[in-house]
User: Fold these one by one.
Assistant:
Number 1:
Amino acid sequence: MNLKLEYKKASESDLDFLLDLRMKTMNLHYANSNLPTTRETTLQRVLYQFEKANIIILNDEPAGLLKIDRNADKIDILQLQIDPILQGKGIGKAILEDIIEEASKAQKPVLLSVLKTNKAQKLYFSLGFKIIDEDEHSYFMKFST
């Protein structure tokens, strides 16, 4: 698949897309973790650090969300979601590889968290992320250059 990925800063007009995306990509994982999946809690997660949200555009169509926080000393991937119909095509991997490359050039670690019920952790391990901590529901992972 030829990946022509672009990013567009998320705006209020994207909320319906983002809410739908979040429900499609995350509600099963939240349910399996015994966490709430109501529309209100899902919207709260969408709005969390919304100013850092970017719509992932693939071939001129919205394909997902990347919420990222670039700090002086680290890069935090706050949320990464790819529409389920597009998962498994290398989109998430390509995005993560770009972030890892950026972090390596800047000599910064990349941090993220993943629910223990989410199979995306296999991708993170394959790219070199390591678990540095955990809580009841999530693994906290780090890629160090």
Note: The first strand starts at residue 5 and ends at 9.
Number 2:
Amino acid sequence: MNITPAPARNDRMLTVEQLRSAILADEIDTVVLAFTDMQGRLQGKLLHGRFFLDTVLEHGTEGCNYLLAVDVDMNTVDGYENASWESGYGDMEFIPDYSTIRRMPHRPGSVMIQCDLATTSGHPVRVSPREILRQQVERAAAHGWTALAGTELEFVIFNTPYEKAWDDDYRGLIPANRYNIDYSIIGSSVVEPLLREIRNTMYASGLNVESAKGECNFGQHEIAFKYDEVITTADNHAVYKTAAKDIARQHDQSITFMAKPNQREGNSCHVHMSLRGLDGSLVFWDAETGSRTPLYDHFIAGVLATMRDFTLFYAPNINSYKRFVKGSFAPTSVAWGIDNRTTSVRLVGRGAGARMENRLPGGDMNPYLGLAAMLAGGLYGIEHELALEPETAGNAYESGAPIVPTTMHEARDALAQSEIAREVFGEDVVKHYVHYADVEIEAFDAAVTDWELKRGFERL
């Protein structure tokens, strides 16, 4: 394996030589090698610093390929082609991306390096979420464009620690705020010790922090980060979700990014995206006319045309679909509008700030898959010069526009039947994630829920 050092993404992150010096000076003793799995979780190994220098730095390390073929409980499940009992569940190689070396201030003496995945013969693992996004980035680059994105991730804070929440079957959780604190300074101050530590930790880890604000659900908040190149944004998103949970645990609190953790407002993950030329030039905005370019309109049209087919990548769990409720600020229709928060695609900004906001994804979105789907759809619209349908003005909930899938089963079928998905992602990727949906649907259909017991135990 040939490991290639790369420049740090910014001056808060480390180069390979800076990491080497910090380990030799006993400032760093643990190197976390991590990749993002199908469920959007960071998985990997915690390596001793000296072992990393002596062995892993030049040669990488390995992990079982079942990590991209399990359910959320880490159960091995049949039906995946990349890993199975028949193939012996062999290894895949972790390929460190040395532009991602970041300190982890909430874990003293630790750094994290994010990884790509390869087969033991050296080929990229095509069904890996980071590789799926990389393929779309390369597709955009072939046209002369780079994609920029920002993800606005909401979460709910509880004053119940994770372990107690588990032991109590997630009943009686105490929200950190007792009423709607959307934009409330008082509401934010109640949890500021936690929010402040998350913001400052993330900044020290190389993320560019913008702000924190309260949201509508009890205990719901959002911390926003500045947009960046799409793979960088996805990397940061995955690190942020993991670190926020770590820090909440240290405060004897818990955070959930579930799309719909209770009957009130769900957790969204609004995704902002735009294209630029590889030289930084604007391609979405015409400075002379002060208006959108035809290329931008084609991009929007492509995202809309593929929204139903790609919904599984935006809403990857059974629970995701319970967020799509009329009048909830979560979209239900495939429609676009200018600064219209009832549509699934909202256009905002002018000039260099011109971008589209995809309001469909929830807080449980795998960032690599969601960004890949959005970019793939937009590029498809450009390549096929799709015409942009008329803007939806007013209340999109009552517009009569096509409706997004309302269940995971419907989204699964849309992806399985999508010729566009096969064209832009490949048959192997489509087959892999359709099976991912099948596994989740089968598990849910077999479960006896509290709702069923309450309605039927005595009365039926």
Note: The chain is about 35% helix and 20% strand.
Number 3:
Amino acid sequence: MNGSAQLGNRTSTVLGRRLGGELLRLRDAAGKTQQQAAQVISATNSKIVKMERGWVPMRDPDIRALCEFYGPVDSKVTGRLLELAKLDRERRKAKGWWQHSPQAGALSEYIALEDAATRVRAWQQSLIPGLFQTAGYTRSLGVSEGAWEDPDLIERWVEIKQKRQERLLGANPLQMYAVIWEAALRQLVGGPETMRTQLEHLLDIAQLPNVRLQVLPFRAGGHPCMGGAFNIVSFAEAGAVDVVHMDTLGSTVWAENQTEGATYSAFFDRTARLSLAQVDSAALIDAIRKGL
């Protein structure tokens, strides 16, 4: 599924679908019908359908009333849903910092989700994960991809990537677990000096307490994640369904249901078990760096 979809003058967003899916899960767990839910907020059945499918922005009073009706739901879970609703409303009104950056493009949906997440598990087979990239590495990617010919646009793209990395720092940092194929470490993006600096940065960032970094070596052979790179985005609320983000050459794809989320989680876990331990991963990164 693409990051957003249109239905008349309604827009389905990733955050909206994320929030709607959680409300649907709570309703199903409580054994309530759409008609009963509609009566609680003095609405029609069609509004509940639109809310659960992420087609409309949600009001805080409606979320509170439904959470109370479905449970009552733990206050922390309700608070998290209210945060998601606020972020979704801001996204629809283009108030997030990423919405003021046209170069973010389709990535703006992912940045909004990343901003609300508590944990991301990333599998990369050809690139350094975006949250770990140095400015020089990102700049070299912008030049080599040829998407922008104007250097100023490339610099804006670099700024966006650097801004995202603030999620790894602060009082409530994002928990980041990345598994990188050895090929991504050996690909000379930007040349030896740029890559040497990038590998040094990887070694530094791997020391953060909220970062776990492993390398899948060439000698591991076949593995479950050979089909392509992806990010699994997780949230704080108990029982929340993970969202999976995948970039292809021509589009952005999202996997948003429980079955798909569990499948990608299993792929990631099995590939991580085939990877080097953190200390051995750091040793390999350092050896590659010294060989440049």
Note: The chain has two domains: 4-95, 106-291.
Number 4:
Amino acid sequence: MRRLFASAAIVIGTAALVPGAASAETVLTYVSFGGALQKAEEPAWLKPFMEANPDVKIVYDIIDYAKLKAMVESGNVVWDLAVVANDFGMDSDAPLLEKIDCTLVPCSELQPDKYMTTGYRAGHSNSGLAIGYNTNLVPADKAPKDWKDFFDTDKVPGKRVLMNDASSYVFEQALLGDGVDPKQLYPLDLDRAVKKLESLGDDLVIAPSYQGCAELVASGEAVMGGCWTGRFTDLMKNANAPIAIQWNQGIVSPGYLVIPKGTKNKDLAMKLAAYITSAENNAKLSDYIDYGPINEKSLDKVDPAKKPYLQSTYADISVFLDDAWYDKNRPEVNRRWTEWLAGVN
């Protein structure tokens, strides 16, 4: 789940599409990441919710954490329900958020042992990153089985591509590649991670963009990459790219729902959050984008044809982040990443 910054509310649906929308009594502002995710959220959740609640009109805006903070601090909150990445909604953000009402939202079904929460956020969807490799260049008997293989340029010579920001968990990839047990990743040993990254030498490529990461693997300019899985699966399905994904040790990056403190539509926002996270509805997003459900009772509702492309299918072999550690240490991680990247470039 990536962070984007923009602004411009978009009305979802019209009177022709949603009966009663023109005379809606309540306008609810739903805030998320736009793009392909918006195109999935609208048919999966937002339009059906309006059809079931014809006195509600939902408008869509793009998430910006600084804007949310400014709204709450000024007492002028115009957002009602927001989607955030796993870098928001922890202890440091609690003063900005309403407590999730677990009598409405099925909190116990949202796998809190895997998807960390302080009670101010509820699981929205599951995505992440994993190792993708070019099947024309990597023989089947040498396909990577984990991040140690990713960093083994003797076993499979060639370029490795990694993404260009710390929020793509490159340090985690490096430590896993150096043999750290996934359950012992935190606190991150940043010195060790940097040393492992540097061990790739000239075989390391920093992607120009998230899409560029997957495209470098598809083109063969890199034999494998640590990229967002949705970028891989898009090329696999829509461009017939010669890519395979090793889901073992894939790093999960979930999205969460939060309610800005002071919204005038708190009860309705909570109702929509409950609708999205319910066992009945949480899997519907997967019909439109390669993001999986978080509600454990929704996992078996995913279209079987979609399951091979979803991080949620491989949860038992995935790596889950320690968001509480990041909440206290993110500035230092970002500082070390910026310093290291400057040396690479």
Note: The chain has two domains: 10-126+254-309, 128-252+320-344.
